[in-house]
């Protein structure tokens, strides 16, 4: 049966250095050249995901922003995009502001020009760290007002800051059926992150979309934490890496090796048939 394989990146395919290891890169390129249909589903942007997977010849479209975008690197085409309605993005901002949370707003001035906006001068330490790793990124746009922050198309909010403030806002937004609100500790730092998307922007719907588009009969996925949970719900087989959250392991078909030990790729070598 034609199978689509989907892997999370951070904490799953990537090492702690936020890169694909030399071993995994070499083995993946061999599998892909022999016909393996593999893509990734990540909270990262197109630019950040490309940097993290540099050297791997992925051919299938990628799932970005936890399902907010499905993007074809080969053609530069956005195949699927889920946006906040005007009133929705303002309500999200209102809840965040009431708890002292400062967000990054991911969107576009036009449908073809992505931007990441934030209110200059209000950055948390975690936001400053995030920005320091993205110097020169043309998407970054510091703004002054709420109106500028929410202008245009918005499909994703990212918040990085103290646990107490983020968790308080999360305890409001997580009950709103219009949104997906994910709260977790960042994989590589001590920062806490919260990510808010429209309800339709999720990995599960994006996997189903790609599975149909690519004519696949089965889907197999790999993950490690909360933003992989809905993807596990729709895949025929789902595998948690050894370093995954225990509750996600309980949902899994099986457990593969640690991300630091190329667990995903070693499983693919042993079981994909390529």
Question: Which descriptors apply to this entry?
Answer:
274 residues, alpha/beta, Rossmann fold, Hypothetical Protein, Haloacid Dehalogenase-like Hydrolase, Chain: A, domain 2, 14 strands, 34% helix
Secondary-structure blueprint of this entry?
Layout: E1 3-7, H1 9-13, H2 22-33, E2 38-40, H3 46-52, E3 62-64, E4 69-72, E5 77-81, H4 86-98, E6 103-110, E7 113-119, H5 125-132, E8 140-143, H6 146-149, E9 153-161, H7 163-173, E10 179-185, E11 192-198, H8 203-213, E12 218-223, H9 229-234, E13 237-241, H10 246-251, E14 254-256, H11 263-271
Parallel strand pairs: 1-2, 1-12, 7-8, 12-13, 13-14
Antiparallel strand pairs: 3-4, 4-5, 6-7, 6-9, 9-11, 10-11
Helix pairs in contact: 2-11, 4-7
Individual helix count: 11
Q: How many runs of DSSP E, i.e. beta strands? A: 14
The backbone outline, from C-alpha atoms, is: globular
Query: What would the average pLDDT be, to the nearest integer?
Result: 93
CATH class of the largest domain equals Alpha Beta
CATH architecture of the largest domain: 3-Layer(aba) Sandwich
- Fraction of helical residues: 25-40%
Would you give the CATH topology of the largest domain?
Answer: Rossmann fold
Widest β-sheet, arrangement of strands: 8-7-6-9-11-10
Classified in CATH, the superfamily of the largest domain is: HAD superfamily/HAD-like
Low-pLDDT stretches: none
Ends: how far apart? Answer: 13 Å
| Radius of gyration of CA atoms, rounded to a whole number | 18 Å
Write down the domain tally.
2
- What structural class should be given to the helix and strand makeup? alpha/beta
User: Order of SSEs, N→C?
Assistant: EHHEHEEEHEEHEHEHEEHEHEHEH
Characterize the biggest β-sheet.
6 strands, mixed
Strand content: 25-35%
């Amino acid at each position: 049966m034609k199978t689509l394989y989907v892997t999370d990146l951070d904490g799953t395919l990537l090492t702690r250095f936020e890169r694909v290891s030399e071993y995994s890169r070499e083995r993946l390129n061999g599998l892909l050249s022999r016909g393996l249909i593999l893509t990734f589903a990540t909270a990262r942007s197109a630019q950040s995901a490309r940097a993290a997977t540099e050297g791997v010849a992925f051919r299938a479209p990628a799932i970005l922003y936890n399902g907010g975008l499905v993007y074809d690197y080969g053609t530069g085409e956005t195949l699927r995009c889920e946006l906040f309605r005007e009133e929705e993005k303002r309500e999200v901002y209102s809840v965040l502001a009431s708890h002292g949370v400062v967000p990054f707003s991911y969107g576009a001035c036009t449908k073809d020009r992505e931007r990441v906006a934030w209110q200059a001068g209000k950055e948390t330490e975690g936001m400053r760290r995030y920005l320091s790793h993205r110097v020169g990124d043309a998407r970054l746009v510091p703004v002054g007002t709420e109106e500028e922050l929410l202008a245009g198309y918005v499909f994703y909010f990212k918040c990085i800051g103290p646990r107490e403030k983020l968790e308080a806002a999360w305890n409001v937004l997580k009950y709103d059926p219009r949104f997906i609100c994910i709260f977790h500790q960042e994989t590589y730092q001590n920062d806490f992150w919260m990510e808010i998307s429209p309800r339709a922007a999720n990995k599960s719907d994006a996997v189903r979309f790609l599975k149909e588009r690519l004519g696949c009969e089965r889907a197999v996925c790999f993950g490690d934490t909360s933003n992989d949970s809905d993807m596990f719900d729709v895949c025929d087989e789902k595998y948690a890496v050894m370093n995954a959250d225990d509750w996600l392991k309980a949902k899994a078909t099986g457990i593969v090796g640690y991300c630091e030990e190329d667990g995903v790729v070693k499983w693919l070598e042993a079981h994909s048939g390529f």
